[in-house]
Target: Chitobiosyldiphosphodolichol beta-mannosyltransferase
Amino acid sequence: MAVFAVLFSLVFFPLILFVSGTILLSLKWREEDGKKRVQVVVLGDIGRSPRMQYHSHSLALQDFDVDIIGYGGSQLIPSLSKSAKVNVYYLPDIPERINRLPSLPRYISKVLFQTVTLFWTLIKKTKKPSNVLLQTPPAIPSQFVLILVSLLRGSKLIVDYHNYAYTIMALSLGENHILVKLTWIYERVMSFFVSARLCVSDAMRKDLRKNWGVNSYVMYDRPPNIFQVVSTAQKHELFLKLSQTIPIFKDNGNEKNVSRTGFSESTPTGTRLRDDRPFLLVSSTSWTEDEDFSILLKALEIYEEKAKDPGNNLPTIVCIITGKGPLKSYYEDLIKKKCFKQVNIITMWLSSEDYPVLLASADLGVCLHKSSSGLDLPMKIVDMFGCGLPVCAFRFECLHELLKDEHNGLAFDTHQQLAGQLQRLCSGFPSPNTSLNRFRDNLVSFHSLRWHHYWKLHVLPLVTGHL
Model:
């Protein structure tokens, strides 16, 4: 799979550079149009790349014309879809006949198809930018194509490292597989040809310097303004909306009562949260191999047994799992086989407007992200923190850069530890929980610093050439 991509990028680079230059001379070259223009490139679903959308939004706020290139599928955040400064160029989907091929021919054909369509879209459809901001991973063939086009156009290429492609590949193939090693070589060689590098953690910055010999700038994810603490009235409005389709949110199944839900009620003096409401647990997952949902499922099984004993004073848990991904149907089948009485697990996909309100309405968040490299930080925790929501998260190498154990949440290594944490934080609910209250208080300083302000300090100087 990656063998061809690596050889394609390294062996044929000079030849393609020469041929491309000749082609460009025969085309009408798209020169700069006098505007401040930046391209943001994602070789994936743009709507599922929040960090790159936030980059685009911040660039537009700074009066840059922004061209976003990537695949369609999910809805963009409203600030992008409504912005006159943003143009979106969708890449053509992989043809179905390619997807039906056997594994190796499929991968080779996919890389060829993406190389041609990405190159053609950049050269033929877009104007020359001063800067190009590329998300990686994916790395093959986007890094190679963007290096080539940036060299031909004289644009500055900034690669934003969210993780490493080779570590993600290692999840399924193993660390010692030849394809994983070749992809490591490919990523390392490509890193030398870019103008600048961003990364999501200080641990990744150190790793890039130590193992690849390249410098980078840390741009931590920060919550945008859509992730905020919300009022009880806003929570009630969301619960009413969810109760239209999800029985657990109804007032004991009473569909006629429009002023009460299973969590909240409207009274003559205003809205309030019910004293007999369940504990609302939220987890967002991509349903992939780097997030082991079985950890949460096993922890909830232990909680179920503990909650059956009235002496433990544990509430019913409503656990909402949001997200899309390849393993979703597998785990949904497992959930259906459970005979829970004290736990209700619901999978759903919410709009970009409702998702932040759900996080702000929850009592606790759970993050199962393992990190294939141990160097990337989960944006879902950032979103939860932005809404003032404490989090229990799976512990990995650099998690402490975001979640500080016993300060703004708890870290766990096993499902047994997570089960114990759930019992500790749910005990006596809805009476005030000392730990949860302390975690929420400690999050105030975190969600006071928002994405755009932080971005202006750390990325804007890089784009304008002042860093």
